[in-house]
Write a structure and sequence with these properties.
With 270 residues, the chain is an alpha/beta fold. It folds into two domains: 78 residues, ATPase, nucleotide binding domain (Nucleotidyltransferase, domain 5); 163 residues, ATPase, nucleotide binding domain (Nucleotidyltransferase, domain 5), CATH 3.30.420.40. The protein has eight helices and twelve strands. Helix 3 packs antiparallel against helix 6 and helix 6 packs across helix 7. The longest helix is centred in the C-terminal third of the chain and has 26 residues. The two termini are 15 Å apart.
């Protein structure tokens, strides 16, 4: 059995892998990296009755992995860089070996993954951390579920300047309801619900457009979306709107939020 652990800045995820299959998966939160990593391992071992003797290797990755200097629990422990882990995990989950992966975490990384090469194309500091930071400043909350609940009844017409506000017809392939400027309108009547939706719209539009540019530069028409931000229903709607304009499809594989941990675990066989 191989354990793959993705130690992120806020959330740590762990998976157990046997014979190339994901058997168990869990996630934990802790501010201290070592506490988070050992806590994730311990939770998995207890909840799934895994014995130390069953584990051949622990593969760690993520922002916090550099803080782990020694073996965990006496088990051989190795590090793999996060970009490679995302690429391996993305190809495994999507069952494709020539893909663009957009991994949405605190920030966003965009990766080209092929059977013989995994490349970091770039990314952005815009991601889940941006949503929480802007919401804390504008809405006085950093509770993600609360932000999502507010956004469900928000209206972009109150905060964003849309093309229909300045043009009477579509421009090129852009529809009138497309955004001309995020937060470019900001009416005095804008409610917290509208601000919440505006924040989500800004973040996912940036992510979506960077993904489109990356895919088009590699002549690929699909983007695999992974990471914590991949299972966001409002975000998916925003990316779907972008997909309709630019003919780039966005796919969300099952267990996408565990992509990096899965890639770390599978890397042992590479």
């Amino acid at each position: 059995m191989i354990i793959g652990i993705d130690i992120g800045s806020t959330t740590t995820k762990a998976v157990s892998i046997e014979a190339g299959k994901v058997i168990n998966k869990i996630k934990t939160k802790a501010m201290d990296v070592i506490t988070s990593a050992t806590g994730a391992f311990g939770k998995m071992a207890v909840e799934h009755d895994i014995k130390i003797a069953q584990i051949e290797k622990i593969m760690i990755t993520g922002a916090g992995s550099t803080k782990i200097k020694n073996e965990l629990f006496g088990i051989p422990t190795e590090k793999i860089d996060e970009i490679t882990a995302i690429g391996i995990g993305g190809m495994f989950l999507s069952k494709k070996d020539n893909i663009i992966i957009t991994n949405i975490g605190t920030g966003t990384a965009i990766i080209e993954a092929k059977k013989d090469r995994i490349s970091h194309l770039g990314g952005s500091g815009v991601g889940g951390g941006t949503i929480l930071g802007l919401a804390k400043a504008l809405l006085m909350t950093s509770n993600f579920n609360g932000i999502m609940k507010l956004a469900e009844s928000g209206s972009l017409n109150q905060v964003d300047l849309l093309l229909e506000d300045i043009m009477e017809t579509d421009i090129s392939f852009l529809r009138k309801e497309a955004t001309a400027s995020n937060f470019g309108k900001m009416l005095d009547t804008a409610r917290h619900e509208d601000l919440a939706l505006g924040i989500l719209n800004l973040v996912y539009q940036v992510i979506g457009m960077l993904s489109v540019f990356a895919a088009k530069s590699k002549h690929i028409d699909r983007v695999i979306v992974t990471g914590n931000g991949s299972d966001n229903p409002i975000g998916k709607d925003i990316l779907s709107f972008i997909s309709g304009m630019y003919a780039i499809g966005f796919e969300y594989p099952e267990d996408a939020e565990y992509t990096t941990a899965i890639g770390a675990g599978l890397s042992w066989n590479k």
